[in-house]
Amino acid sequence: LAILGFGSQGHAHALNLKESGLDVIVGLYKGSKSWKKAEDYGFKVYEIAEAVKQADIITVLLPDEKQKQIYEESIKDNLSEGNALFFAHGFNIHFNQIVPPKFVDVLMIAPKGPGHIVRREYTLGNGVPCLYAVYQDYSGKGKEIALAYGKGIGGTRAGVMTTTFKVETETDL
Predict the structure, then answer these.
(1) What are phi and psi of 64, to 5 degrees?
(2) What pLDDT does residue 62 have?
(3) Among residues 22, 42, 13, 41, which one has the least CA distance to residue 127?
(4) Minimal CA–CA distance to 149: which of 61, 62, 65?
(5) Contacts by 165-170 with C-beta closer than 8 Å and gap 24+?
(6) CA–CA dist 41, 23 (Å, integer)
(7) Is residue 173 pLDDT above 90, yes or no?
(8) Which end of the chain is more exposed for a tag (fewer CB within 10 A), N or C?
(9) pTM (2 decimals)?
(10) Above pLDDT 70, what percent of the chain?
(11) What is the average per-residue pLDDT within 14-42?
(12) DSSP three-state, residue 107
């Protein structure tokens, strides 16, 4: 798994998934203030394009306003057939700012709380409820992959409910 971004949600997802036994790397832009922080937590950190190339599952946890540019510059051309592309908010997919290729799953797991709460609840043996959505199911296993990811971050401990990218985006806004 490649977690792109190491801010509020990024650090929580990366740490929770790692502690759930998954192989996690972090992708950041060159010069990111979070680079050393992620390394201090024991993660291998790569520039975003390289992280995407190395991963089967790529989670975009960058600020919404930066996602389109970073997707075009570093993600799009490095996706491989069968990758799963995750988001924690549906905005850029719903509003067609990002249009992924047909050969990847496009999924969402949206914890209903800030990253520090997602992390704290996980470390306490609890979880934060999550919404999940399958926008594009290339593999035919999108639901299973989304729920497994939700389990990895602790969401299934509290409950995971289905939604759509449209509903999640519009209700969040």
Answers:
(1) -50, -40
(2) 96
(3) 13
(4) 61
(5) 165/87, 165/90, 165/93, 165/94, 165/108, 165/133, 165/135, 166/90, 166/94, 167/133, 168/89, 168/90, 168/108, 168/110, 168/131, 168/133, 169/89, 169/90, 169/91, 169/94, 169/95, 170/94
(6) 14
(7) no
(8) C
(9) 0.97
(10) 100
(11) 97
(12) strand
Which of 11, 89, 94, 116 is flagged as catalytic? 89
Which residues are within 8 A (CB) of 115 and not within 5 positions of it... i.e. 6 or more apart?
7, 8, 9, 10, 11, 12, 13
Count CA within 13 A, CB hemisphere, residue 42. Answer: 8
CA-CA distance, 90 to 95, in Å (whole number)?
Answer: 8
Domains of the chain: 2-172 (3.40.50.720)
- Model confidence pLDDT, tens digit, residues 100-113: 999 999 999 999 99
Active site residue 89: yes
Cβ–Cβ < 8 Å for 73, 161:
no
Its sign, for the CA torsion 86, 70, 55, 13, is negative
Helices 142-152 and 8-19 cross at an angle (nearest 10°) of 90
With a CB cutoff of 8 Å and minimum separation 6, the contacts of 22 are 1, 152
Tokens of 90: 């549906």
Q: Please state the length of the chain.
A: 173
What pLDDT is recorded for position 172?
Answer: 87
